[in-house]
Amino acid sequence: MGKLLVLALVGILAALLGERLVAFRHRIAASRELKVKRLPNCHLIKGIETGAEDIDILPNGLAFISTGLKYHGLQSFAPDKSGKILLMDLNEENPRPIELRISRGFDLASFNPHGISLYIDKDDTIYLFVVNHPQIKTTVELFKFVEDDNSLMHLKTIKHELLESVNDIVAVGPDSFYATNDNYFIEETLRTLETFLGLTWTNVVYYSPKEVKEMAGGFYSVNGINISPDGKYIYVADLMHHSIHVFKKHANLTLSPLKVLQLDTLIDNISVDPYTGDIWLGCHPNGMKLISYDPENPPGSEVLRIQDILSEKPTVTQVYVDDGSLIQGSSSAAVYNGHLLIGTVFHRALHCSLDSSSGKGQSNVS
Ligand SMILES: *[C@@H]1O[C@H](CO)[C@@H](O)[C@H](O)[C@H]1NC(C)=O
Ligand SMILES: *[C@@H]1O[C@H](CO)[C@@H](O)[C@H](O)[C@H]1NC(C)=O
């Protein structure tokens, strides 16, 4: 394989050049100081103890949460337990997560959910797309949400050679989506080398039963992906490049690069407020602590909000920062009507009420 040879050569060169190490330390944000910035009305969500890697909220306030991710060297507090999808109704007075039952025939034991995305069809059918890593492979599972009995009916398992290391997806139809591949390699050592050398071999792939195609490439490590409320723009987070890439989505589904917004943090998941179009980001202010977990010196959490991303001067607000004493390794932040949910890769989840100063366009704070 051509790329393997390139990798070997680059590896030898890199061994000679300590510069790579400096660059790596920068990419992984090894040394940023954290100034804690908490919100007044937050509490840890009961029943979430093994991560809430991804959160997606329906326009009616039903929040879907993936929990129990086990992923390539990242910490897990329940390595033997399979993952779950939780549901939380944010319209309730004291919302609590319940586990969604999954229809028979689906292999629950190996369920290892990662990024998720909801899609509401014209007939109001709700589809849930879940990136799954049974063993260390990647599949995308398509479910139909049955609200009457809070269950997920498994419709199909999608596998494809262009979808081998998927992190996150955003659905654009009842059986089509864009997905991010966060690494080129699957194998652990090669992945580590890929990250260390700073290769930019990860991409965004479009999938439909008729066509599967790379739509953008050349990223260090693409992670969260999402779409603007009008469906015209796709936002992609490059974790190791500390940036958000904005693409124009054309009618023929190709993506053309529009702009790149540089931020001083590792961006994981992207969530879009369906009403304001604001972008909410779950970020890792210190990537090194995330990959070499030490409970005595845990990774922190950071939530950013971006307003008017398409304008010349988007407003970036640091909404929440924790040093890891309350919540570790935030990977997602999603809002609904004055509620903010902050999820983490392997730790707990936080439910906050936003006041008017931090929740533009969301005055009905409960
Ligand atoms: C993470 O990304 C997925 C796919 O774009 C999206 O469905 C989900 O809402 C995001 N979650 C958060 C909380 O950012
Ligand atoms: C898709 O549409 C865009 C914008 O109209 C155009 O520039 C591009 O060439 C098209 N690509 C393909 C593959 O049709």
UniProtKB/TrEMBL annotation:
Known EC number: 3.1.1.2
Essential cofactor(s): Ca(2+)
Keywords, sorted A to Z: Calcium, Disulfide bond, Glycoprotein, Hydrolase, Metal-binding, Signal
SUPFAM superfamilies found in the cross-reference section: Calcium-dependent phosphotriesterase
Cofactor annotation comment: Binds 2 calcium ions per subunit.
Domain of life according to the entry: Eukaryota
Protein name: Paraoxonase
The species this protein was found in: Phrynosoma platyrhinos
